[in-house]
Write a structure and sequence with these properties.
By secondary structure, the protein is α/β, with parallel strands linked by helices. The chain contains ten helices and ten strands. Helix 1 links the parallel strand 1 and strand 2.
Length: 273
Amino acid sequence: MKTWLLPIDFSETSKNAARYAVALANETPDVKLVLYHVFGKIAAGTDGTPLDLSNSTRKEIAELALGNLINELAHSSPIDIIAEEGDSLTENLARYVRHNGADMVVMGLTGASRIEQLLMGTNALNMAHSAVCPVLIVPPQATYQSVKNILFATDMKNVRQTTPIKALRSVLSNFNARLHVVNVDADHYVELSAAYKTERANMVELLEGFNPEFYFVRINDFLDAIQTFVEDKKIDIIITVPRKHSFLSSLFNPSHTRKLLYHTHVPLVAIHE
């Protein structure tokens, strides 16, 4: 049975990511969900005044809130709850995955307030780069629809060495969807050279059973090109490898006015070998 870890800070964005994960799990066989909350070492009231609550009491309160959230979710898959003390959501998540195992983390892009938006955006990016397991990042306004089209962004270079094929196949196995493999090397005009044909043949072999279709990005603005592709092909999920190019970082750059996730509301999966 696969395990998906859902970080919850009780913001609407994290709840929306949980709703997305539950809807996806309802269509995916043999998935267990884990609602995961990290509470701080010092509890404070709404005015910031420290509260005299023991660790066990704060844990019980968090578990009660997680239990209430389960009741709000229209789930058919089993759901567990975990509440742990910690200073860093990213570090706690990574430690939990290493010690207990998880096939995917599903988390929202932002939190409830501007501060939480910054923190949750940072947490999502940090988790995407942590390499502990695939991370599905759900934009604030995303609503679940059956996944019919998936975009895998790759530079098509040394694909046998650079493609995290085990993680990629694991993610793809959750869906019965068309796979669009898109070359993201937007700085160069791609020629149908012998070298490219070799890489394409290698990718076809690696993705045996998923029937990939291949495309090129041929205009200078990478984000515009991907956004246009997403709209034209009705893409439901984007998969990318953060270590191989700046795609993911460019999406999360706070100064970037055309962040693809906000414009298209398409969830993104970051994978590593």
